[in-house]
Amino acid sequence: MLPVVALVGRPNVGKSTLFNVLTRSRDALVADYPGLTRDRRYGRVQLEHRALFVVDTGGLVEAAGGIEEEAMRQVDYALREADLILLLLDARAGLSVSDQTIAEQLRRLGKTVLLVANKVDGLPSPDEALSEFFLLGLGAPLPIAASHATGLSVLLEHIENLLPRAESEPEEEETRGGVRIAVVGRPNVGKSTLVNRILGEDRVVVFDQPGTTRDSIYVPFEKDGRCYVLIDTAGIRRRSKVSEAIEKFSAIKAFQAIEDAHVVIYLIDASEGVTDQDASLLGMVLEIGRGLIIGINKWDGLSSGQRDQVRRQIDVKLPFVDFAEKQFISALHGTGVGHMLDAVVGIHQSVIAEFPTSMLTRILQDCQVTHQPPLVRGRRIKLKMAHMGGHTPPLIVIHGNQTDDLPGAYRRYLSNAFRKALRLQGVPIKLEFRSSDNPYKGRRNELTERQVRKRRRLIRFVKKR
Fold this sequence. Notes:
Blueprint (H helix, E strand, L loop, with lengths): L3 E5 L6 H9 L17 E6 L4 E6 L10 H15 L2 E7 L6 H13 L3 E6 L7 H6 L10 E2 L8 H11 L16 E7 L5 H9 L17 E7 L2 E7 L12 H16 L2 E7 L6 H13 L2 E7 L6 H14 L7 E4 L11 H12 L5 H14 L4 E2 L2 E2 L1 E9 L4 E7 L6 H15 L7 E6 L8 H21 L1
Parallel strand pairs: 1-3, 1-4, 4-5, 5-6, 7-9, 7-10, 10-11, 11-12, 16-17
Antiparallel strand pairs: 2-3, 8-9, 13-14, 15-16
């Protein structure tokens, strides 16, 4: 197991910025806004002689209850598993009572703590600004500027020296990939509750308040010998209702998670029914082209009449995703959640499936025998051959004549026929049509002029005779 380094401190001291610098990524959401991070975020850092995991945590506050208490619980989890703790301090703001309280809490843990004074760039006298941090009794603070990566090499050297050495250093292994599953939906439909239920632990913050999750949290796990990466995303509201810049960035992160996923679990609150926003978001998921499971959450709290109404709403408002798997679940109590991973595995197999050209061409020919393409300008559209063109989603390239004039109804017929014949589960199919070039196109005038010149020469020859 790789060692774990936890980044802790009071809100808005630059923990997420340092996390992005150490992991050489932009995974953590960063803004000049206190309390932005609430969940634990893990990243891999490669040092000169070894690798480690770094954990970004929420700002430590005196939690009086509510969502702050849930966020502090996530910090406690990170502190328990950490081999080294980096206590970040704000060099510009100076020493505060909160810093002293946090330092006292860390001393009780009995773990190695390294003081890191951030935001030293622009200070007239950095040494004078850092002198008061010696009162914490945790040693000399390291001056850095995370936003500019100043002092990073010295910090990494200290981290490598302070981490415990194993008796035999394990050889570096390539990070194993897995089936990436993004859980998306409107705010407060139970996405984080579902993630925790699948994982079997309180991995992400759950609270009865819209907008609890602000960033996309990637959680790798393993079950039955198969690797997965579960992605908890922020709830996406209508654009007209989004006013805060943080919420806009959260929505962008959610759509990036959809792009990064193999399978999307779209969660609907059954107590509120299928809304126009659900239909709009599902249209975006369909456009991106990922495997899809529609999870109807809070199903156990509905009467039989309400359940029938929700089923009718799905048929009426979501006919364009009729290929998607429908799972009626209760994330809070776990009803129906156990079958979700089985469905994910089946959909992932459909997403990455390969089919030979001969099979696809034979299906195309059978489709034309059953239902011929229409006539265009008196000529029948001919579809000759089909082959694979890509994955995620499956792309089938069809060659023929006059394919640009193929109507949308016939394209949908082919898409449904291919999905049924190939037994694809919960995944859209994209068809790409290519018309064969006519080698004689554009040569009619040229041939006519040649014939005219030949006829003129013949006439002149006859007149001379």
